Amino acid sequence: xxxxxxxxxxxxxxxxxxxxxxxxxxxxxxxxxxxxxxxxxxxxxxxxxxxxxxxxxxxxxxxxxxxxxxxxxxxxxxxxxxxxxxxxxxxxxxxxxxxxxxxxxxxxxxxxxxxxxxxxxxxxxxxxxxxxxxxxxxxxxxxxxxxxx
Length: 149
Description:
It contains two helices and nine strands. By secondary structure, it is mostly beta strands. Strand 3, helix 1 and strand 4 form a beta-alpha-beta unit. The two termini are about 25 Å apart.
């Protein structure tokens, strides 16, 4: 989002965001070749939706891996660590997940996975989602429920 111009990115091809405001479709962005793309915003890798911010970038950009978040994100001040490009702050899951939980149905309890990575299988026919922690990655079911686009 660019507050100065009141511009939004949207996953929708009609260039509208859910609020009805005008937006720029991710499909319309200039295609760039990149090894990794990091999307540092809450729920951009929402596992319950086939079309989310992360899948749009993976499908429309030449990125090998797209990192995003499943859950609400907070940036905490770093102490004693080197600056990793966020102005002395490091992202992590927020202590309060009220917004994330507000979208749950009463009968479902979703597990938070935090930072996740979307990539293609070796044939580039299916999307593979894994946890993005250092060490062994755990493959996750994508999408977590059927029929939600």
